[in-house]
Automatic annotation (TrEMBL):
InterPro entries, alphabetized: Integral_membrane_TerC, MFS_trans_sf
Keywords on record: Membrane, Transmembrane, Transmembrane helix
Protein name (Swiss-Prot/TrEMBL): Tellurium resistance membrane protein TerC
Main location: membrane
Organism: Lacinutrix venerupis
CC terms in the record's Gene Ontology section: membrane
Length: 264
């Protein structure tokens, strides 16, 4: 396992996944902050830290569940027609559904952030919280909703890195733990940075669209789908890493240019 974790593919996947997990966790941090701010001041920091720790535990449990389903790679139903052939497995179904969900969720989030950027925050502010326990329950419910795209992103980034699903699971758990640890240490600073640079979060959502499309093609490849005699191939993850790295580099250049203009 150590050889796998120290391989260049695993290290790059870990860094990319950790970055995405942190960026995707921004909304979670905002909601947790809103929920915590409704409590007495002495309980706010405690509620934030406990909420993020519970979020980590919840995501690790979900990772085990999803990884178990991904491991079910034996076909249980086959379709063979003149124009379509495929062997359905639970693995391919989960990946296909996950890809569709990521594409839908990402495009919806981008539209909401452009048209009504404070919609979710305003609806959250209207909810009454009277105790620490009530705040934690609300935080857990919110985090469960946000965990779905986070978990599917992790699956998309690590699926196929190793033939051993346990190795991929360990890599995903490490990424989740690191991202939550960073969020606990720098929650407010991260939130303020994203508020100043909202394009970073929109960029992360655009990455999710890429990952969603990759999951769909991966599902078709694993189910040995053939359309009109043409098989569907898997997209090499190197292309995805390059697209993410290139986009971040352009964003970094834009940030530097805008800062230079501000100084002048």
């Amino acid at each position: 396992m150590l050889d796998f974790l120290l391989s260049s593919d695993a290290i790059f996947a870990l860094l990319t996944l950790t970055f995405l997990e942190i960026i995707l966790g921004i909304d979670n941090i905002i909601f947790i902050s809103i929920a915590a701010n409704k409590l007495p001041e002495e309980q706010r920091k405690k509620a934030t830290n406990i909420g993020l720790l519970l979020a980590m535990v919840q995501r690790v449990i979900l990772l085990f569940f999803v990884s178990f389903l991904i491991g079910l790679s034996e076909p249980f139903y086959s379709i063979k027609t003149s124009w379509l052939t495929l062997d359905l497995t639970w693995q391919s179904i989960i990946l296909f559904a996950g890809g569709l969900f990521l594409i839908y969720k990402s495009t919806s989030e981008i539209r909401e952030k452009v048209e009504t950027p404070n919609h979710d925050e305003n609806s959250m502010k209207g909810k009454v919280i009277k105790s620490l326990q009530q705040a934690l329950v609300q935080i857990l419910i919110i985090d469960f909703i946000f965990s779905i795209d986070s978990i599917l992103t992790a699956v998309g980034m690590t699926n196929g890195l190793s033939d051993n699903h346990n190795y991929n699971l360990v890599l995903m758990i490490i990424a989740v733990i690191i991202s939550i640890a960073v969020m606990i240490g720098f929650a407010n600073k991260i939130r303020l940075f994203i508020e100043k640079h909202p394009s970073i979060q929109v960029l992360a959502l655009a990455f999710l669209i890429l990952i969603g499309f990759m999951l769909i093609t991966e599902a078709a490849h694993l189910s040995e789908t053939a359309l009109f005699g043409k098989t569907v191939g898997a997209i090499p993850k190197g292309y995805l890493y390059f697209a993410i790295a290139f986009s971040l580099f352009i964003e970094f250049l834009n940030h530097k240019i805008s800062r230079s203009k501000t100084k002048k």
